[in-house]
Each structure stands twice: as structure tokens, then as C-alpha cells.
Amino acid sequence: MKKIIVPIDFSDCSKNALKNAIKIAERMHMEVLLYHSVVVPIGLAEGVPVGNVGYDFEEMEASSRSRLEELKAEFPSLEKVQSKIVIMYGPLHESINSLAKEEEIALIVMGTNGASGIARSLIGSNAFHVMKHVDIPIIALPEDADISSMKHIALAGDYLNVPDHDTIHLITDLVQAFYAQLHIIHIDKGNVLMKDKVDIARSMDKYLKHINHSFHFRKFDDVEEGLLEFSKELNIELIAMISKHHNLFERLRHRSETKKIILDIPIPIMVLHAN
């Protein structure tokens, strides 16, 4: 059975991610992993004693497990799906990559906090860091976001290079599971020729035969502004983007705007990784 990882730090933000992940797991017949990463103090990680402070790893793990069990009790809906607790040590992205070698991980669902200043930067960069270093699809949820009954999902990118089925199958499965509509949005600074529009639609239609979908072509100089306007117009509840393969994500990355979008657009962002 495929699994969803939900990183838990016991914040309201991670609890909200868990609530949404449970609904996705229920719709898509997946198992939920309540995942807690225990960060080892730097001195100990390098083999250097940290003063006279003692660290009992068994006690740390037992405390984390107890808190996770208490958290499970807060979510009766977990009884509708298979779930288990996973506790690992080290940086989040490293331990998730390690776990992925043992488990069939299909998706990561994690929260991003709307706090301001340094706290906002640190929390927001956590999701961004995982996106950069873990080749597993991830949904980043702003505080209080609710996609448990979403009906409008967007797939944004530069489709002059058409993604393959292996890259987008999770988003199409998600659309089917929620009986939603998929809006494929192509954003460019210039106008897209009609012939190119037809070619793009024809090349992608073979992957989308069994789902409700539509194509949209928009001209915007600012990608974030374009996505926001488009999302408001069509009531988009989740925006999916493809990393590595498409110029859109590359353009965002080189201009350091991907992190800005994750933090500033008040809509859940999903990142898919091309093979």
C-alpha cells in the first residue's frame, strides 16, 4: 500500500496538514505515516560532547512517541485509514530520503506557517528545503488551508515540453479521487500561437481521457501575479507545478520566486518531480 508522510512537529500547522492528509488517504486508499524527526544536537552529531548535558535518546524517542499517540487520539478520522507512527533522527529531508528506501512513499503533506519575520522564513524554508532535496511529490499547506473537499485543481507549467504520464499520474489520480476538475494553465510573457495551443492540448489529452479537464493560456510578466489572478478567477484550491522538467519552475527557481510563492500565495502548492 502506498503511503503519505505527514511531518509532525505538534504545531497547529502540522495538525492541519494531518487533517488534510487523512482525507487524501481515505479517498486514495493510502496509509498515513505520522512522521516526527528528532534533531540531534550538532555537537553530538559530530561526536563532540556538549558540556555536561546528557541526552537519553531512548527517553527522547519515548517522549515523542507518547505525544504522537496523544495526537492520534485527537483525530478519530484516523480510524478510517491505516496509519502508523514513525520516529527518526536527523534533518527532515535526509531522514525522509532514508525512509523512502524502505517504504513506498507516494506523497508528503506538510504545513507552512503564516508567521512573520525570522519565524516565517525558517518555517517556510522547511517545506521549500524538502521540495529541493526529496524527489517525492509534496503538498505544502498554508495555515488553516482545507483541501478535504477540493473541486478545482490547477496544473501550472510551460507545456512546450509535455510531461510524461509517470510525472503527472499522481495529480490525475487526485483529481479522480476528489471528483474534481483539472485546469491546465500555461503562463508565458508572450502570446501563445493557436497552433501551439492545439499541439499542447492534443499531446496532453492522451493522459487525461478519463478526467474532467480544461486548458488555459495566459500572458503575464509576473508568474506569481498570474497564478493568483487565475486561481481567484476559477476558485482553484490546489496549484500543482512540475520541477526540473519545465521552464516555469526553472524560471521560478533562478529568480528565487518558488520560495516566495510557497510563502505568499494563500493557496496550497503541490510540487511534482519529473523523471
Structure description:
α5 packs across α10. This protein is of the alpha/beta class and 275 residues long. The chain is built from 10 helices and 10 strands. Mean pLDDT is 79; it is low at 42-54, 115-124, 245-250 and 252-258. Strands 3-2-1-4-5-10-9-6-7-8 form a 10-stranded mixed β-sheet, with helices on both faces. It is elongated, with a radius of gyration of 20 Å. β7 (181-188), α7 and β8 form a beta-alpha-beta unit.
Topology:
Layout: E1 3-7, H1 12-28, E2 31-38, H2 42-45, H3 57-73, E3 83-89, H4 92-100, E4 105-112, H5 117-133, E5 138-142, E6 152-157, H6 165-177, E7 181-188, H7 194-205, E8 212-219, H8 223-234, E9 238-243, H9 247-254, H10 258-264, E10 269-273
Helix pairs in contact: 5-10
Give a quick summary of the entry.
This protein is an alpha/beta fold and 275 residues long.
> What ranges have pLDDT less than 50 throughout 5 or more consecutive residues?
42-54, 115-124, 245-250, 252-258
Principal-axis shape? elongated
Task: Kindly report how far apart the N and C termini lie.
Answer: 22 Å
Question: SS-based structural class?
Answer: alpha/beta
Tell me the β content.
15-25%
Q: Report mean pLDDT, rounded to a whole number.
A: 79
Order of helices and strands: EHEHHEHEHEEHEHEHEHHE
Largest sheet: 10 strands, mixed
Strands, total number: 10
Number of helices: 10
Relative helix content: 40-55%
Query: Taking strands numbered 1, 2, ... along the chain, how are they ordered across the largest sheet?
Result: 3-2-1-4-5-10-9-6-7-8
Q: Write down the Rg.
A: 20 Å
